[in-house]
């Protein structure tokens, strides 16, 4: 299995539970380099690949999905990926692993206008050990009904404030998201969920890209996001599932 690498923080980012052993890198390390800055979406890390026999393999972090109560949020992921497998297989073959954020279940940030429940953000070439650049990923996946995480800006940055200035309202929410959250909680039969109440996105995911590949990656999380996790008092996996919303529910059936 090819587990997705853990991501260090840029200096100034608030560490999340489980991240305290990760380094914090100063902005000077990325100043003037080519960066691709994405909205950091709040979901579960997932991966799609095929073995040499063409068998579909689905993973989350360090394990393949094999069933059980802890995988209830992945039920739609399994059915969607199985439906798309015949189109993905000739593209990924047994060479590439497609990684993305699986966003069906509300974790801490609620979304009511996602482009898809699976938003891809990286492709690993297992033959070379390299992650494809954004442009190469788009070329590989062209023509497939696979959504990507939102890219906020690509280019060179001269000051940390240029990066943090990209933090704003999530691109995957409408202005009416609070009402949508209340409706989603009612549909799930639970009281209004303890979710992040800020309009702003969780944070930024930052890739350093050179020569057609991702050579480094970092994250920057706004301070209030950690507070939302701690204030909730429970882990999302131990609560009833509240489904995030899609901008167009029909994308699951394309």
Task: Provide a brief overview of the structure.
The chain contains 5 helices and 13 strands. With about 250 residues, it is an alpha+beta fold.
Structure summary, number of beta strands: 13
Structural class based on helices, strands and sheet pairing: alpha+beta
Low-pLDDT segments? none
Order of helices and strands: EEEEEEHEEEHEEHHEEH
* CA gyration radius, whole angstroms: 18 Å
Query: Distance N terminus to C terminus?
Result: 29 Å
Q: Give the helix level as a range of percent.
A: 10-25%
The coarse overall form would be globular
- Biggest sheet character: 11 strands, mixed
Total number of helices: 5
- The portion of residues forming beta strands comes to 25-35%
Q: Return the average pLDDT rounded to an integer.
A: 91
